[in-house]
TrEMBL record:
It comes from the Eukaryota. This is Stress response RCI peptide. Its main location: membrane. The keyword Transmembrane helix applies. InterPro entries: PMP3 (IPR000612). Residues 84-116 are annotated as: Disordered.
């Protein structure tokens, strides 16, 4: 709770620092720096969107919910997962697989494509 409030205060003054704390140094951080340089308000909107997605995914993961669709405009895997580590998933069950039967050569006539 206190960490979230501190993050919001940092984001109010310098939006890229807030994104850096949540998403790390990656595409989201670079986009936020560019948006902040283009205009202070677009940088804020983007930073608060990244933080919203992060905390929403984190809260959903704690409830046992998982959204398989990535949030649009978010490129950090850490934000997409809500800061939680990915647990190893068991391999999918193996279905029965029947190998195709080998072709028997034709008696007489052509033996294959392009032969005379």
């Amino acid at each position: 709770m206190i960490a979230a409030i501190l993050l919001i205060l940092i984001t109010l003054f310098i939006p890229p620092i807030g994104v850096l704390m949540i998403a790390g140094c990656g595409p989201d951080f670079c986009i936020n720096v560019l948006l902040t340089l283009l205009g202070y308000l677009p940088g804020h909107i983007h930073a608060f969107y990244i933080e919203y997605v992060y905390y929403k995914r984190r809260e959903d993961a704690r409830k046992g919910l998982y959204d398989p669709h990535p949030a649009s405009g978010v490129y950090s895997d850490r934000v997409q997962r809500g800061g939680l580590s990915v647990q190893a998933q068991p391999p999918p069950p193996q279905g029965t697989y029947a190998a195709p039967a080998p072709h028997a050569p034709q008696q007489g006539g052509q033996q294959g494509y392009g032969t005379v």
